């Protein structure tokens, strides 16, 4: 019998959605199973701090949880550096505190609500003081990908034509069109998030589990047995097929 593995799409600071998803895993019999979190724990939602703490607490109680890094997680991690850094992949004119990215929601969850007119290095100093050390370590220790059996997990996807063990960090965290439009067999079924879709979607060579929790749409959790996949809802498993 194939051991099930669970995967969860982008959480984006939505603690109540995370707790609901974990409850669904437990109801499916997966309390002790491996769960792969696809990254983007932070930004947009109102409780980034609570989400990171919930994940740390689960890890520290011995849950078999694998945490991947998302592009938003790296933006938070880099802003906590001294001096703070902005991700060079962002479009000109964008920064972590741009209204489309959600950095302001993240710092607010740590108690910093006044940021207008504040210089970034001053804000970074205050933020560094507010964020617990274990939250910083959590961000720093996130994995870029996870390879298990017929499945390959990454936040954004992969660069087609490049061996899975040779993938670049920027692609694993940021790639979109080049990956989405490629219909080739990548050698393994790629499970990813990063690009919001209306519902979890199976494209044959990849599965997208980002259903827009950062925009108050439902958070998706799925279960895999080999390459067979089901989405978990309040009633249990729903098959997810190409």
Task: Describe this structure as you would to a colleague.
With 242 residues, the chain is of the alpha/beta class. The protein has a single domain, classed as 4-Layer Sandwich (Purple Acid Phosphatase, chain A, domain 2). The chain has 8 helices and 11 strands. It has helices at residues 15-27, 48-60, 71-79, 103-109, 120-130, 133-140, 169-174, 177-180, and strands at residues 5-8, 34-37, 65-67, 145-148, 151-154, 189-192, 201-202, 206-208, 221-225, 228-233, 236-239. The strands form 2 sheets. A 6-stranded mixed β-sheet has the order 3-2-1-9-10-11. Strands 4-5-6-8-7 form a 5-stranded mixed β-sheet, with no helix packed on it. The radius of gyration is 17 Å and the shape is globular.
Query: What is the strand tally?
Result: 11
Backbone shape: globular
Helix content: 25-40%
The main pleated sheet reads as: 6 strands, mixed
Q: Give the termini distance in whole angstroms.
A: 23 Å
Main sheet: strand order: 3-2-1-9-10-11
């Amino acid at each position: 019998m194939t051991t099930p593995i669970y995967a969860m799409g982008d959480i984006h600071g939505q603690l109540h959605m995370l707790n609901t998803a974990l409850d669904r895993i437990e109801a499916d019999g997966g309390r002790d199973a491996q769960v792969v979190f696809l990254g983007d724990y932070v930004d947009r939602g109102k409780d980034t701090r609570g989400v990171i703490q919930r994940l740390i607490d689960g890890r520290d109680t011995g849950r078999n949880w694998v945490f991947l890094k998302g592009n938003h997680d790296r933006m938070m991690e880099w802003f906590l550096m001294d001096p703070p850094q902005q991700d060079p992949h962002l479009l000109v004119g964008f920064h972590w505190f741009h209204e489309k990215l959600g950095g302001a929601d993240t710092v607010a969850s740590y108690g910093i609500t006044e940021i207008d007119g504040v210089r970034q290095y001053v804000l970074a100093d205050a933020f560094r003081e507010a964020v617990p050390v274990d939250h910083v370590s959590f961000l720093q220790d996130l994995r870029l990908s996870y390879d298990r059996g017929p499945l390959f997990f990454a936040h954004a996807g992969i660069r087609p034509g490049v061996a899975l063990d040779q993938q670049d960090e920027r692609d694993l965290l940021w790639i979109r069109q080049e990956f989405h439009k490629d219909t080739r067999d990548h050698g393994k079924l790629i499970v990813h998030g990063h690009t919001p879709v209306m519902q979890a979607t199976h494209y044959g060579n990849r599965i997208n589990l980002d259903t827009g929790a950062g925009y108050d749409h439902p958070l998706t959790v799925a279960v895999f047995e080999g390459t067979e996949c089901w989405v978990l809802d309040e009633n249990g498993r729903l098959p997810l097929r190409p």
